[in-house]
């Protein structure tokens, strides 16, 4: 059973030190997994999500800095503590500049190590035992265990405690509003309002009044004062969804509000102070919008303080069975249907589909399947029917090759129920090469064992 204090990956080619450190950390209440080299550590990270890595600097083969660089490339929010018997000031300075959390020289003080571990766990968003369930509740509505989503949520948890503006970029239907709500729930503003508005869904004049409010008789039909969303979200969070579709004239007014932290309702000569945390979201490439004169560069930099990229569903296919089964339970209750699962063939079809509409499309498809299923188990022909008329987008060659390779690996893991040795044999690759491919596409073989159950 996993310790509530968090999980640590310990890497050292000195087995005696590895055992000593493991005993000390386990005695402090941490779960510890061990590796005797960098390659083994990377393979273990794909199967065992951890909140901290402690690694020796000097090791045979891949050294500690090379391991850190490999970890940082795919899991930039995962803290790393470096140990070395060859410590020097230049090495420590170089390592910490690269983003390593701490650098300790052997022989190190055990109390100092535990202090650094505790601080690193807090940095990584690991909840303390007393309020672990409460701390985890912020992400309860987000379904997924893929490396891509765990990394995204780790970054979201880090930024939540600040007041920095967050910029969410992702394809339509990938869950930007849900992530914004999760960030709000994890923040110190959680007890204040969360408000959201879709900037693409309203004409300019209506959008302006919705954001900034208006006074009675400011225009025809304004029969009473309306505070607007900035005032309604006072002390909380305001999500500006599809910010890339906001008209230019309104962008200038929004910039002024963000700079001055004041709004002036339409028809009023008085300004009102506002304290609101801004999260913006879009599926558009705002760099291109800026080049084409459709988005203000100064507003972009005001909003783009902490950017988070949401992966499309096609980049986290191992989450599809989790999502599909979760939606099925919800929608079966909603539609009063006694549907309780998918046949293996039906789930395989769902896992292999293109999903250009991402999680939203999967939700709608599962609802259609639940409503139309004549039996408790959804069969493959019904899934075929639901998917057959959906157009498949034409990708650039490089993206198509990458997508094919990932889908091929997913099929192998599904066919072997997550058995890496069997999958590597079918692919005619050795296990080391196969693990590197899984690492490249952020696939966790262990997750595919669940789909066979």
Describe the protein in words:
Residues 125-134 have low confidence and may be disordered. The radius of gyration is 25 Å and the shape is globular. α7 (147-160) packs across α8 (176-186). The chain has 20 helices and 14 strands. With 453 residues, it is of the alpha/beta class. It starts with 6 loop residues before the first strand and ends in a 13-residue tail after the last helix. The strands form 4 sheets. A 5-stranded parallel beta sheet has the order 2-1-3-4-5, sandwiched between helices. Strands 7-8-11-6-12 form a 5-stranded parallel beta sheet. It has a two-stranded antiparallel ribbon with strand order 9-10. The protein folds into 4 domains: 7-123, Response regulator (Rossmann fold, 3-Layer(aba) Sandwich); 146-309, P-loop containing nucleotide triphosphate hydrolases (Rossmann fold, 3-Layer(aba) Sandwich), CATH 3.40.50.300; 313-387, Helicase, Ruva Protein, domain 3 (Orthogonal Bundle), CATH 1.10.8.60; 397-452. β3, α3 and β4 form a beta-alpha-beta unit. Keywords: ATP-binding, DNA-binding, Nucleotide-binding, Phosphoprotein, Transcription, Transcription regulation. Residues 7-121 form the Response regulatory domain. This is Sigma 54-interacting transcriptional regulator.
| Main sheet characteristics | 5 strands, parallel
CATH architecture of the largest domain: 3-Layer(aba) Sandwich
Strand content: 5-15%
Average pLDDT over all residues: 84
Q: Specify the overall morphology.
A: globular
CATH superfamily of the largest domain, please?
P-loop containing nucleotide triphosphate hydrolases
């Amino acid at each position: 059973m996993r310790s509530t204090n968090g999980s640590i990956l310990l890497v050292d080619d000195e087995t005696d030190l590895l055992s000593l450190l493991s005993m000390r950390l386990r005695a402090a209440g941490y779960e510890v997994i061990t590796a005797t080299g960098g390659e083994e550590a990377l393979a273990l990270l794909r199967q065992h999500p951890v909140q901290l890595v402690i690694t020796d600097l000097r090791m045979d083969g891949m050294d500690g800095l090379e391991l850190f660089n490999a970890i940082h490339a795919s899991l930039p929010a995962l803290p790393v503590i470096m140990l070395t018997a060859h410590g020097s000031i230049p090495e420590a300075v170089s390592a910490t500049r690269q983003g390593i959390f701490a650098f300790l020289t052997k022989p190190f003080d055990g109390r100092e190590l535990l202090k650094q571990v505790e601080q690193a766990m807090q940095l990584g968003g690991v909840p303390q035992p007393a309020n672990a369930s409460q701390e985890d509740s912020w992400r309860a509505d987000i379904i997924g265990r893929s490396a891509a989503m765990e990394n995204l949520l780790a970054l979201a948890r880090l930024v939540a405690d600040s007041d920095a503006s967050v910029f969410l970029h992702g394809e339509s239907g990938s869950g930007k509003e849900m992530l914004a709500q999760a960030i709000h729930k994890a923040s110190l503003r959680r007890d204040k309002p969360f408000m959201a508005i879709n900037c693409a869904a309203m004409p300019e004049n209506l959008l302006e009044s919705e954001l900034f409010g208006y006074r009675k008789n400011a225009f025809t039909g304004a029969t009473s004062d309306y505070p607007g969303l900035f005032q309604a979200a006072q002390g909380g969070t305001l999500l500006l969804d599809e910010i890339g579709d906001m008209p230019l004239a309104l962008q200038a007014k929004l910039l002024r509000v963000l700079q001055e932290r004041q709004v002036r309702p339409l028809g009023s000569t008085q300004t009102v102070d506002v304290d609101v945390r801004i999260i913006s979201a879009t599926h558009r490439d705002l760099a291109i919008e800026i080049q084409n004169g459709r988005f203000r560069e100064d507003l972009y930099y005001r909003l783009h303080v902490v950017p988070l990229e949401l992966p499309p569903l096609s980049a986290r296919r191992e989450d599809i069975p989790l999502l599909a089964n979760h939606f099925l339970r919800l929608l079966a209750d909603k539609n009063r249907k006694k549907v309780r699962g998918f046949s293996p063939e039906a789930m395989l079809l769902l896992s292999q589909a293109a999903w250009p509409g991402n999680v939203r499309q999967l939700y709608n498809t599962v609802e259609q399947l639940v409503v139309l299923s004549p039996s408790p188990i959804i069969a493959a022909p019904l899934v075929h029917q639901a998917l057959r008329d959906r157009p498949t987008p034409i990708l650039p060659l490089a993206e198509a090759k990458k997508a094919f390779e990932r889908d091929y690996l997913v099929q192998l893991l599904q066919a072997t129920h997550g058995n890496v040795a069997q999958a590597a044999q079918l692919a005619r690759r050795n296990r080391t090469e196969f693990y590197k491919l899984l690492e490249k596409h952020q696939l966790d073989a262990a997750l595919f064992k669940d789909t066979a159950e």
